[in-house]
Amino acid sequence: MTQCEICGTENEKNFTVIMNGENHVFDTFMCAIQELAPLCEHCGCKVLGHGVERSSHLFCSDSCSRKETSEAPPEG
Ligand SMILES: [Zn+2]
Ligand SMILES: [Zn+2]
Questions:
Q1: C-alpha radius of gyration, the chain, whole number
Q2: In percent, how much of the chain has pLDDT > 70?
Q3: Cα of 57 to ligand 2 centre, how many Å?
Q4: What is the 1 CA–ligand 2 centroid distance (Å)?
Q5: 44 closest CA partner among 67, 24, 11
Q6: Parallel, antiparallel, or unpaired: how do β-strands 52-54 and 57-59 relate?
């Protein structure tokens, strides 16, 4: 039986996520998110959706991407 690498739970429903060629075992998506979800480069929150990618940096939202890249928001 495999063990969740975050909380150590052994459960037959544990699942494996392959990311960048590495296998990770988790018991819940919460644990998987804690380990694998990318962080917004501005506010540090976990990016669980598509996020906003700008100049190969990842942000949780358009507003974070603007603050970090100091691009002026569109006028008006
Ligand atoms: Zn777990
Ligand atoms: Zn953010």
A1: 17
A2: 91
A3: 11
A4: 37
A5: 67
A6: antiparallel
DSSP secondary structure string for all residues of 18-76: EETTEEEEESSHHHHHHHHPPBPTTT--B--S--EEETTEEESSHHHHHHHHTPPPPP-
pLDDT in tens, 26-63: 999 999 999 999 999 999 999 999 999 998 999 999 99
Of all ligands present, the nearest one to the C-alpha of 25 is 1
Residues with CB under 5 A from ligand 1 (ion): 4, 6-7, 9, 27, 31
Average pLDDT of the chain?
Answer: 91
Average pLDDT over residues 65-70: 84
Ligand with the closest atom to the CA of 63: 2
